[in-house]
Amino acid sequence: MTQSGTQISRTQLRMLAVMALLLCGFAVVVVRAFAIQVKGKDFYQTQGEIRHVKEVDMPVSRGAIYDRNGEPLALSTAMQSVGIVPGKLIDQFSKVEQLAEVLQLSAEELKQIITSRSDRQFLFIKRRITPMMAEAVKALNMPGVEFRTEYKRFYPTGEIISNVVGFTNIEDQGQEGLERTYDNWLTGISGKKTVVKDLLGHAVADIDVDEIKAPKPGKDLYLSIDRRLQYAAYLALKKEVYKHRAKSGSVVVLDVSTGEVLAMANMPSFNPNGSKEDNLGWRNRAVTDIYEPGSVMKPFAIVAALESGQFTRTSTIDTSPGVYEVDGFVIHDFRDYGELSLVDILVKSSNIGVAKLVLDLGREHLWDVYHRFGFGQSTGSGFIGESAGYLPPHNRWRTVDHAALSRGYNLSVTTLQLASAYAVFANNGRYRAPTFIKNSLNEERAIIDPAMAASITEMLTHVVTDNEGHRAGLSNYSVAGKTGTARIAEDGGYSDNYMASFVGFSPVSRPRLVVAVNINSPQGEAYYGGQVAAPLFAEVMKTGLRLLNVPADEVPLTADKNTPMKTEDSHG
Amino acid sequence: MNAQPIITMVLAILLATVLVAFVFSQNETRKVFAALQQAEQEKTQINGEWARLQIELSTLVSNSRIEHLAKSELGMKLPEDEQIMVIKR
Predict the structure, then answer these.
(1) What is the predicted ipTM?
(2) Confidence class for position A569, pLDDT limits 50, 70, 90
(3) Where are the domains of chain B?
(4) Which among A61, A205, A555 has CB closest to B30?
(5) Among the listed residues A193, A215, A213, the one whose alpha carbon sits nearest the alpha carbon of residue A53
(6) A160: chain B residues, CB-CB within 8 Å
């Protein structure tokens, strides 16, 4: 018994020992649990937060814009933007001062922002900083300071094409020009993914990349613009605008057969990389601004006259004595030209000649011709802010209006419309809406008889060749075109300011380029289209034909060429 | 009758293997993910550099700069109309 008794008590003793050990263990666990749960709460909570699962943005860049040869016109580069989590900085003001110094911000303002918006999760304090500055901020190694990748838009060509390409705002959205027109195409969709982050904020594992949230980078855009030609056109325009102290000016260069805009320059312009305080240069005037074009409209009135069948190329009109009264309104010619054929009406740009021609035709017919050439309607280029111009309905025309419309008054047009309309003569009578995008051609449609187009082209060639020393003339290339000099309407009347323009194409045997130029309010002695706009036209056309390697079509037989006398017989 | 402890044993070993394998694969995933992260970061960096180089290039080949260099350093100029001769074939 005693043996079994001691055995029992021995077993019991062993049990007790084990129990005691277990209890001790429990006690340790309880104490530890208390330490963690109650005493160490703050510490562990923040540690947990750092480790927690986070949704991170996957930023994407905006598509680049290139010219037709792949030269960049607008590019996005990744930059770092600095933001803060105010709550984490509220008790670290000494570090905040350092941060403010590195970022060149006011420490006081920064502190104030931190205290007043301490409930915010994230606040940008400086966006798109230089890589050097970003390094300096990283070196501070501050929790509560975070970086976000953002993209900065850069325009390598600067002011040369700024009002056509446009620009973006700080949120990377297109604000003006083609940047705005094609914003949807260019904008990427930034993605989101959920990741597990470690102590240092590095992602250690991604939980799942949701298909819908996958980033879609913006698509690149290839314009029809030729950067070299654009540069030449802009420089020539700038020179001309300064030379004549003009208010503004535009140049449009179109490819005759495709309707592609090869160059479009406007003055004044602006630097898209700088601060955009002055919005004077923002407008793409060639597309947004309308004006009464003047004599450049006369070829269209001639089309109406020829289509009516009442006149032929050689029909004559008596313009004597150089003054002609229509309903109490007097129309003047530069001088008394006497009897003029239709060709000579264009060559001399006789106001009386065209007025007499169109007054013999129905109003509806002249309206229809202008309408067919696209006046009074948007060209269909798609450019945001494009103006349709204005062509009054024919049932509202008085006889005076009828006559005025023949010489390009009482309607308003854009420079792009003029270029597109002249392209019809160069393109066998077919109209094609202009486009800014490479390989994206608009439908072509026949609007006048090809024979008619050829006939008008021949007449327009005479405008340049028959006016001796016409400044639109080129050596080795034949040119067809027409000047315009229109008084600018201001405050209900006509001012002493003029709109000088020239529209034409070359080479006539196989037209490649249409160039339309206008110079608004030249302040010097010269203001006629033939004096101000024609030389600019010639300069741009000459460069364009050279850059595109267009073969010469008018080669003189003898090698020695006498430079023709420069006379001033050509005018609006 | 003796099979049960053996099965238990086998299952225990299997379980241990699976657990080790899981830890191992988890570790591999982390490593590969870290490498991916780094590669992505590198990609962003390289893209950024590409854009910067493109900008630098476009500044270097800008028409105004080329024109200036051609005129001032190389003494080039555009031919006058009189100097141009067109040869017709």
Answers:
(1) 0.74
(2) very low
(3) 37-76
(4) A205
(5) A193
(6) 63
